[in-house]
Amino acid sequence: MNKFETLELLTGDEGIAQAVKLLQQGECVALPTETVYGLAADATQPDAVAKIFAAKGRPSNHPLIVHIPDETHIARWADSKPADLQKLADAFWPGPLTVILNTKAGLNNPVTGGKDTIALRVPSHPLFLKVLIDLDTGLAAPSANRYKQLSPTVPEQVVEQLTGRIPAVLEGGACEHGLESTILDLTSDELRVLRAGPISAAEIEQCLGKPVTTPMEHNEAVPGNVKAHYQPNAPVTLVKTAELTQAIENESNKNIAVLAYSEQVLKELNALDFQPSLIKQIASDAAGYGKGLYYDLYCLDKLTPAKIFVETPPVSDDWQAVNNRLSRAASFEFIPE
């Protein structure tokens, strides 16, 4: 892995040009997407892709999503274009939908993680798209964070996690969705959402006019499918609304941070004379909650609490992506430095 003294913040047209140059030279650059910041490398350069795994500390058998500038690039990576894909592309691309296809014959590329499938999407963030169009290639780009840690939705998170590991991040502000893309498996007749995201199974069903399943658990090798993931340094505990204030009172160590969305809990915390700086109020709708989740956990974690209590959100189809991320954030596993 290359060692860089600083992580440069790239801005404007000059920053885009510099990002393109670095990527052409086989370096990794963090780029903004509409979901989270991605750690990009030219997917056609195996040595560059290897730098992604090294910078993140990610196992090389975990496949990466390849971002392409438009659907004409599908043939460079996949063996065919399923009939459903055109409808999906028309409806959701550019956007936060990743599709899994069978790889093109003879494709031997580390982005597949050794599998015979390829994950593709066309991102909608204008800066990422501009870089892709200028390069005219695919960019492998998992989230720009250390393996299993919080995905970054603002540049400062990239800087904190990857300084010394990559040369630059392209400034693109806060990400629109804040959660990773929906992953849809198109390699069989059974359409499966293998990672919940901003585009719901119901929206896909409406687009295609056929059923789409969303298994609660599966063993497919896709990004994000490990038990412990999306984690701050402080352990996360999910607590039901009715039990949250009592759980705090029962703790001997009061250095607890709280992420809450309901007015009920916020009023109860105020009545407890709870330290305001240790409370983050997050949006009460699923889209707003998802957008703020990683950044709010990041802000609370910077206060170095002993624990982070998260008010458990509703359980419904709209909240599936949020609950998926929270269940993994609350699965404690030691994260080495």
UniProtKB/TrEMBL annotation:
It holds the Pfam family Sua5_yciO_yrdC. GO terms for cellular component: cytoplasm. Residues 13-199 form the YrdC-like domain. It is found in: Cytoplasm. PROSITE patterns: YRDC (PS51163). Its EC number is 2.7.7.87. The keyword Cytoplasm applies. Keywords: ATP-binding, Cytoplasm, Nucleotide-binding, Nucleotidyltransferase, Transferase, tRNA processing. InterPro entries: DHBP_synth_RibB-like_a/b_dom (IPR017945), Sua5-like_dom (IPR006070), Sua5/YwlC_C (IPR038385), Sua5_C (IPR005145), T(6)A37_SUA5 (IPR010923), TC-AMP_synthase_SUA5 (IPR050156). GO terms for molecular function: ATP binding; double-stranded RNA binding; L-threonylcarbamoyladenylate synthase; tRNA binding. ATP binds at R58, T117, S143, S151, R195, Y230. L-threonine binds at T35, H67, R121, A141, S181. GO terms for biological process: regulation of translational fidelity; tRNA processing. It catalyses: L-threonine + hydrogencarbonate + ATP = L-threonylcarbamoyladenylate + diphosphate + H2O. Required for the formation of a threonylcarbamoyl group on adenosine at position 37 (t(6)A37) in tRNAs that read codons beginning with adenine. Belongs to the SUA5 family. This is Threonylcarbamoyl-AMP synthase. It comes from Pseudoalteromonas phenolica. The lineage of its organism: Bacteria, Pseudomonadati, Pseudomonadota, Gammaproteobacteria, Alteromonadales.
